[in-house]
Design a protein that fits this description.
Layout lengths: L14 H10 L6 E10 L2 E8 L5 H16 L4 E5 L2 E6 L7 E6 L4 E6 L6 H16 L4 E5 L2 E7 L1
Parallel strand pairs: 1-8
Antiparallel strand pairs: 1-2, 2-6, 3-4, 3-7, 5-6, 7-8
Amino acid sequence: MKTAMQMPSMPAMPMNMMSMGMQGMGMMAPMMCHMTCEMTPTGMKCMMTPGEGTTMDMMKDMCASMTMMMNNGMPCMMTCGGMPMMMMCGMPMMPKMTCEMGPKGMMCMMMPTDMCDMNMLKSCCMMMGSMMGAGMPMMMMCGSMPMMACLA
């Protein structure tokens, strides 16, 4: 008689089948893009252009998805080396973010809120630019899902 804690043995699965199964479970590779950050009178503007393996149509879909997720209360966060840089609609820094498509790629605008003033955005913009310039990618996350990996 088997107890509830015993697991049936699983046959060995080839690695390519395992990776296909994991992708079906929500594990996906982030889109690659190139990003520049600059300050404007209204906030921080991040311009993302397609990177290796990324098309404008993919960026357009990503822009629509991120906007929909944020409108439904799911926070988007930028991390660098696992360190949270800013979170839109959440904490560590909470600017308001909008995404829109332009002729060259996706533009994300981070605007100050009560918990994130222009000085915080300015220092974050400088730090993100320095880190990407040193070869560290910025990762755009939605919930715990990696959406975009951005390089300088």
